[in-house]
Amino acid sequence: MSGKPKLHYFNGRGRMESIRWLLAAAGVEFEECFLETKDDLTKLQKDGSLLFQQVPMVEIDGMKMVQSRAISNYIATKYNLCGKDLKERALIDMYVEALIDLNELLMTHTFKPADKKEQHFATIVDKATNRYLPVYEKVLKDHGQDFLVGNCFSRADVQLLETLLMAEECKPDILAKFPLLQSFKARISNIPTIKKFLQPGSQRKPPLQEKDVPKLMKIFH
């Protein structure tokens, strides 16, 4: 299990997407092994590849890693994306954990029943614009630097950009009241490794469509 990291997941975003983003941001090439059927998942479960019987799973450095936060922590540490000291790492972790909460809201919208979608959308917009985005706008304003922590590119910047783009897919004008986040988005999007990942044909996945949900249900349920 040497060479490029190998990512085991379905051919879509889900909890693997942030891992794809991190690897891409670090300039690391990776391979993907897509789960197409329930049997694909069962095979991994039976051969002992999945410690807790679930994906995402990433083969990296001789390990078969599961649990998306653990995988992301490992990648961020390996490629120096987690700050220069313990305090910076704590800040990065706080920012990332909050973004994961918002990400979860955005990711689950497609799965909501039709009669719950409107309320769920309202919840997304409310929490994004009143709880989460103002914090990152204030962080950028208070320290006046290009990045969220220590004026050095970190996994917090990667996670924030991913989440901002997802939020805009949900509501295109969601950043209207956040000029510093708009500037941040443009700035981070132009980092060469990220710019490459944002190009058509990259391993970045498109938003999940409702038509894809039944196929996922057959794999995972």
Briefly characterize the structure.
With 221 residues, the chain is an alpha+beta fold.
Give your account of this protein's structure.
Helix content is 56%, strand content 7%. It has 221 residues and is an alpha+beta fold. The chain has helices at 17-25, 38-46, 68-78, 86-108, 114-143, 155-170, 179-189, 192-197, 213-220; strands spanning 6-9, 31-34, 57-60, 63-66. Helix 1 (17-25) packs across helix 6 (155-170). The protein folds into two domains: 6-79 and 198-213, Glutaredoxin (3-Layer(aba) Sandwich); 86-190, Glutathione S-transferase Yfyf (Class Pi), Chain A, domain 2 (Up-down Bundle). It has a four-stranded mixed sheet, covered by helices on one side. Keywords: Transferase. Belongs to the GST superfamily. Alpha family. Pfam families: GST_C_3, GST_N.
CATH architecture of the largest domain: Up-down Bundle
- List low-pLDDT spans: none
The largest beta-sheet arranges its strands as 2-1-3-4
Helix/strand-derived category reads alpha+beta
Rg result: 18 Å
Mean pLDDT: 95
Overall domain count: 2
Query: Largest sheet, described in full?
Result: 4 strands, mixed
For the record, the CATH class of the largest domain is Mainly Alpha
Shape: globular
Keywords: Transferase
Pfam families: GST_C_3, GST_N
GO biological process, one term: xenobiotic metabolic process
Protein name: glutathione transferase
